[in-house]
Amino acid sequence: MNTSFSKIGHWISGKLIKIAEALGLRSVSPVGPAKFVDLAPTDQADQEGVYSAALTFATASPDVSNIALTGPYGSGKSSIIRSFLKSYPRQALHISLAAFLPEAEDERRTVTKQEIERSILQQLLYGADANKLPLSRFKRIQSPGLWSIFRSLYILIGLLALWHVFHNRSEVFEGSYFKPFNLTNWTDISIAAFALIFLWSTIHHFYVASFGVSLKSISLKDIEIRPSSDDQDSILNRHLDEIVYFFQSTRYDLVIVEDLDRFEDSDIFVTLREINSLVNANVGVRRHVRFLYALRDDMFVNTDRTKFFEFIIPVIPIINSSNSIDMVLAQGERLELDGSLEQQFLREVSRYLSDLRLIHNIFNEYAIYVANLETDGENVLDATKLLAVLIYKNVYPRDFERLHRGEGHLAKILGRKDELITARERGYRFEIAELERDMAAAEQQVPKDLRELKMIYAMALFEALPDNTICVGRTNRERIALKNLADQENFDEFIVAPRLFHRNIHNQLAEHDNSTLQDRVDSEVSYAERVESIERKADAQKQSAHRRISHLRHEIKAIRTSKFNVLLRSSAQEIEGLFKDLGDGGDLARFLLLEGYLDDSYYQYTSLFHSGRLSPNDNKFLIQIRAFHTPEPMFPIDNPSEVIAGMREDDFSLDYALNVRLVDALLENEEHKDRLRKVFAYLSNEFPNQQEFFEAYYATGSHVGEFLMQLVDAWRDFVPAAIDGSSAVLHLAGIIEHLPPAMLAREREEHPGLSAFVADNLRDILDLLEGVDPVKLEELRIETKDLAAIDGYPNVARKLYELGHFCLNHGNFDYIFGSILGEDFGSDLRKRHYSRIRNSGAQPLLNRVESDFSAYFMNVLLEMDDDNEEDIEAILAVMSHDELEADDVEAFALRQTKLLPTLEEVPARYQAMLFRGTQIAPTWSNCLAFIRSENFEGGALIAFLGDDKVRAALLETPIPESKEALPLHRFLIDAEGLADIVYRDYIQALPREFQKFPDAISAGKRRILIEERRVTFNAENLAALDDEIDLQTAFVAQNIVCYLSDPSSYSIDDDFRERLLATDISDDEKRSLIALMDLSALPSLPERACIVGPILLRTNGALPSLTSDIVKALIVNAETESTQVQLLNLLHETLDKNEVREVLGQLPYPYSRIQTGYARPTLKRTNENSELVRWLDERDIISSVGKPFWSNDIKVNLYQS
């Protein structure tokens, strides 16, 4: 009874509430925005009433039975329907299949058409009160109402009445029961009447109920009988009578069907349309029933939907990817999260959220998670990351649930962190190895490039030399085979040498002008500049590689502390398949992971943490070591003190304790001193195998300095072990950075290899240092090989320079001048290197050079082929260093372009070298000073005097005539080593003659003395040349005037005079010599006659001593025909006619025919022939002279006898 009254009270209360809402009397709660938002459709979705107006039109139109409300998922169709129903005056039945949908990822569950129709039928029939469908064959539990009390009483009284009548059945059948039939017997009559009415009502009830009974089937042993309708596939068609009965018995005129389109089965719509038509056509249904479908636009192909529905209402989505940001921001404002959430994240992630209910649920869960995770009042969690986790949870719920068990796609991605770190480290280390190999190859390539350059210049030199050249040299004594020239270390000296000496296969020495060699190869760039360019290019490549290696090592150092999204981006392709396995292609998951909003710290946002207890990571660490698996050094430990407490003492003597967080904790507490000692002992024994731990600890450890100091003290051989290890640079960088100067000094003294290793690898070490105290560099006492390599650390470079801790090499000097002193370090420095150092005023630089001058000279000055413009003071300073090898100083001095003015400050051992190399000013005073020197070498002075430039400069001034200069005069006249042309020049410059010939000079040099008249002409000197007839002849010829003035003083015969006639003396002098000769011997000396005849002809005179025989000998032995005729014309008077004819007979044709007879010789008309026939005719030797008709020749007419 109380239950009935309670229901009545609730019913009355509900009605009053609805009335209050309709009248607007129910006020809104004055409290601010709710913390949570329900996900149910709202009835405020159609503020403008556009959709309500369309639906009102459709539900009022008599021709519209099937209405479609179309729009994409989440467009607000349900809210529009609810808003419409709020003002709909009639009853509507709502059928929703959303709860019946299988999970989108559950491929095992497939919903059949019968299941869908069964659900529709159930919602249709069970949506109405069971009491209103008493004849339905679908029996449902009916809740007793208020009238059930009276019905039960009616049944009880009726049963009592029937029992009473049945008990008195004999009286009833006899009729006595109704007697008397008046009011006095009203009780029995009333009971009988009531029993009869009850029996009738009971029979009527069962009769009516029988309409809802159907015979499904009758089954015997082997026979089953069932109605044909039971075989129909469609449940709706099978129970069509139930559906019609439903609409006959209820007042629903609008049936709303939602989520039916998600099953992608348009046949169900056909069935529902048929049902709608049958219901409206049924006479028992006295109203127009309409079906309203909420479905997607693409449910029907093409125009099929316009044929199926009588009215279609499109829904404009209230949210999509373009405006979802507004909904997200609205939720943030509702929860007052504007200050804690990244606005950029909200804008970007909203593009992936296009369902308003999903957005509401995400923020509902956010409010719950925040309330639970921040119970201690400390807001230490990242609100944006928490929201990202919840977004993932809602979009990928199944994968998120599996994440708690370490399964699923996200767990696989997060579990690959170590693999990604390893792969990235491997990639960086591979690139470093490649760069180091390239650097090594580049260093090897420089000598190859230099050799190719040498070959180019060597070939250019070979082309300029004669073909039969076999060797060359800078001096006449040096011999370098052509095939070995390019291999010479001082090859550059051959290139810049102005002249070279070369020998042929006959060992003949010759001089070659080499001044144009460089211009022939390249007129714009010199050999030294090209060498410098090759080396500079190699240095640039090396520095670039060093910078890249430094960057990569820094990346390796930071990779284990890199955020997960950074690692993921570097290997996105490797995990692409895991994203594709997620819904929607994993675009949202990819965004959250790659942008760093979702990472391996997710567990902090998905579980409660109790301080002072083991975290999941801590517990995992202990589980692994108890399973004898060593976690990696970077394994995350959240509560190291608890982990240490959970470890065994023996664990600290194993690699289990080699964890960055654990070692930090051991260093922080003195209580762990013994445990730390065990750790150091293990490291000393297993050092080569534990480099991964050292790398991890150096990169992320909090107490690296304390760790190294205690390790060095505990293990005294740590430094040499580190130097010999594979990660030596990393260890030494940590030692320098973290050990105090005193400890560094101690380690340097105990381990000498420390300074050498640091010097060799300083650049790599500095790349790993955060900063370095210059005092530590002073304690290490290193000698840096390449200051330019540490150009990125100018303070360190300057400090090393000031301390003088650098090697003496080209690169360091270039860097000091360019980067520290700020001076030019180009070609001028290379040409005047030592001079620039002396003039720089940089005392640290000068001190460093002078402290080890021998190394500077050998490694720098001597190696620079183009260092050839040093100051005189610098050259003399180099020569003053007695510790240097004389040959090396000579090579340095000989390539200088500046000449030493005097020998005053030049050490004695280098004087000859200067003259031999022409490196001293070409003055007669220097030559005389050298001759007087104790270390005088004649060969050096000969080489000096033989130089063309020296000779030209010396001969510009006269040779001194003083008595003090006589040694110089004697040296010049005795200079057999000079070339003849050079010797002649110097002999010409001598101011006086010498009394006699030198004994030790060659015939060529004596000839020069004769030709230049530098020896007095007398019989004694002439006699000194007895063995050299040619020189005697030349000597007399040069002094012919002296000889002719007193020929009797010299014992000279006609043979000697004959040789004199062949010299270049004048014809008059020759005529004088002929006068001294005995000409009677000419007929027997045709050669002499041949010489004398032309001389007489040229002097145009005859000698008194000439006889006819001599004349005939002169004429006949003359070399040419013309000379013979001219001599005959000149000397014919000495001959008679017969002798003339005799001579003519010995002359060539046609002169030989001028005799007697009938011949008529013809002569060419020349002056000598005209003269010949003239005197022949005059002397009557010929008859006459005539002229032929056909020419202008001379015709001679002879006497016949």
UniProtKB/TrEMBL annotation:
Q: Which SUPFAM superfamilies match?
A: P-loop containing nucleoside triphosphate hydrolases
Q: Which residues form the YobI-like P-loop NTPase domain?
A: 51-410
Q: Which residues are listed as membrane-spanning?
A: 146-166, 186-208
From which domain of life does this come? Bacteria
Question: What UniProt keywords apply to this chain's record, in alphabetical order?
Answer: ATP-binding, Coiled coil, Membrane, Nucleotide-binding, Transmembrane, Transmembrane helix
What would you give as a GO molecular function for this chain, any one?
Answer: ATP binding
Record's signal peptide: none
State the organism's lineage.
Answer: Bacteria, Pseudomonadati, Pseudomonadota, Alphaproteobacteria, Rhodobacterales
- Know the name of this protein? ATP-binding protein
Q: Which residues form a coiled coil?
A: 425-452
InterPro entries for the chain: P-loop_NTPase, YobI-NTPase
